[in-house]
Specification:
Elements (H helix, E strand, L loop, with lengths): L1 E6 L25 H9 L5 E6 L13 E5 L5 H13 L3 E5 L1 H5 L1 H5 L4 E4 L6 H10 L5 E3 L5 E2 L22 E2 L2 E3 L8 H6 L3 E3 L2 H10 L4 E4 L8 H11 L5 E6 L7 H9 L2 E9 L3 H6 L10 H10 L3 E8 L8 H11 L4 E6 L7 H8 L25 H15 L2 H14 L2 H20 L7 H25 L1
Parallel strand pairs: 1-2, 1-3, 3-4, 4-5, 5-6, 7-10, 8-11, 11-12, 12-13, 13-14, 14-15
Antiparallel strand pairs: 9-10
């Protein structure tokens, strides 16, 4: 059979015409790992191709027999459109990924079959059943803690578009997370389990990567410190350079931090989420300990690694002052880059259940669940203030003068290569903001202005009333 694997894209990022250039945001594209792994799981008798809508249009009239689509919640509406178009042409369409796993009933109304959980162990069965005419509606893969084996991804299928990505060399050592943060779909997907690949398998995959630079896409590369030590020891002699996601806990173990650097780590994406201890406790993420953010981040920077921070705004203990406060903090700790998220309760998570029970979900359009739209009724401000403040903070952090300053500072502290990476990453975020007309305004200042105008408005009203 001929199999087409698809990654959908949002409206403002989608390439729809042959030859049309994709948006200039290669620094934010790095992983087609779910599709390249599924391609590797496919028996060799089948012909496989991959289409990423972020960089090329879908050929709906192609001769594929089977179409597989993986998607997050924000891309569910687009995935359903794609599925409908292919089903109308007589193709068999299969869904997988986070939204399909966490909302299998809804997803099943749009697809011929749904893979719930990881593809390993089930994708091959799906194809066998299609050939036999016995396709089931749902294929469930139970969580598998402990060691797991997965094939080396089919990166050859993405090589033709490699120029549109910061790297196509994405590697994963394991899946799942030992923590239980209430907002996290990763924990929900893996049902609070975690498993790792054998270290030797990971090292063999990395040896096969011809490039010096690659990326670990693990959600927390040090989730299991003993595993991380063995991995870093094996990586050190290879002379590679890489970035990954990580928890702040790496700063509490100086030896592990040094090992990571010696193994080639030059950048970490860290989710600190909020500066407020009550917010952290409410999300079951008290282990972050916001009181020690400064010293822990400084320890990582001193080791020679750039830090991109992920922060959420709109939590229940946030008020309109959170945006200015966060901007000052980011400047103080010299964050190299920022991924800003508006609090978004994803379906299947405890947070979604909380907000649903409280009647605080105001928008059920999944395409707005991209962490850039307000879909809830926040507690400490209005929805409009949350949207305005988040947009203002994003725009202010990526002001050109601030980008230039942090790049020059990085040139001195981290060297020319990482300074160049920081410049490109920051300019890509700035490009996105300008392209999407992100401006916003500071709601704290707006409230002050409104209070100052209130006496004048009251006097006018009283004068008008006395005249009449």
């Amino acid at each position: 059979m001929k199999i087409l694997l698809i990654l959908p894209a949002a409206d403002h990022l989608r390439v729809t015409k042959v030859g049309a250039p994709p948006p200039r945001r290669a620094m934010l594209r790095f992983s087609l790992l779910p599709l390249t792994v599924v391609a590797a799981l496919t028996p060799p008798r089948h012909e496989v191709s991959i289409c990423d809508e972020n960089v090329e249009p879908i050929d709906f009239d192609c001769d594929a027999d089977v179409v597989g689509i993986t998607f997050m919640t924000a891309l569910a509406p687009r995935a359903y459109e794609i599925a409908a178009a292919f089903r109308a042409r007589g193709k068999t369409v299969v869904a997988g990924g986070y939204h399909a796993t966490l909302c299998p009933g809804e997803t099943g109304r749009h697809f011929d079959a749904v893979v719930v959980g990881d593809a390993e162990g089930k994708w091959q069965q799906v194809l066998t059943d299609i050939e036999a005419g016995t396709l089931q509606r749902v294929y469930l893969t139970p969580p598998a803690p402990g060691e797991a084996t997965t094939p080396i991804p089919r990166r050859d299928l993405t090589a033709r578009n490699a120029r549109h990505y910061v790297t196509i060399n994405a590697v994963q050592t394991g899946r799942g997370c030992p923590h239980a943060c209430r907002y996290c779909s990763i924990t929900a997907f893996h049902q609070h389990t975690q498993h790792h690949r054998p270290v030797d398998d990971v090292l063999e995959e990395i040896r096969r990567i011809p490039a010096r630079y690659f990326m670990f896409v693990d959600d927390n590369i040090i989730a299991d410190p003993d595993y991380a030590r063995r991995l870093f020891s094996g990586l050190a002699p290879l002379g590679k350079r890489w970035v990954s996601q990580c928890s702040l806990k790496i700063a509490d173990d100086p030896q592990l931090l040094r090992q990571a650097y010696a193994a080639g780590c030059r950048g970490l994406f860290i989710g600190i989420e909020t500066l407020d201890e009550k917010n952290l406790a409410a999300m079951d993420k008290g282990f972050n300990d916001s009181r020690r953010y400064g010293q822990r981040l400084a320890a990582i920077r001193r080791q020679g690694m750039l830090i991109e921070l992920s922060i959420m705004v709109g939590m229940d203990n946030d008020d309109v002052s959170v945006f200015e406060r966060t901007l000052r903090f980011l400047q103080t700790v010299h964050a190299a880059a920022l991924q800003l998220n508006i609090l978004t309760p994803l379906p299947g998570t405890p947070l979604f259940d909380d907000f649903q029970k409280q009647g605080r979900i105001t928008d059920r359009d999944w395409s707005h669940y991209d962490f850039r739209h307000v879909v809830i009724r926040p507690r400490g401000m209005t929805a409009g203030e949350l949207q305005d403040g988040a947009d203002w903070l994003y725009r202010q952090f990526y002001r050109l003068d601030r980008i230039i300053l942090r790049t020059l500072r990085s040139l001195v502290t981290l060297g020319p290569f990482l300074a160049y990476i920081i410049w490109r990453l920051n300019m890509t975020y700035r490009y996105d903001n300008i392209r999407e007309h992100v401006v916003g305004r500071n709601p704290a200042k707006q409230r002050c202005a409104d209070r100052e105008e209130m006496p004048v408005a009251t006097e006018v009203a009283e004068f008008t009333e006395s005249v009449h």
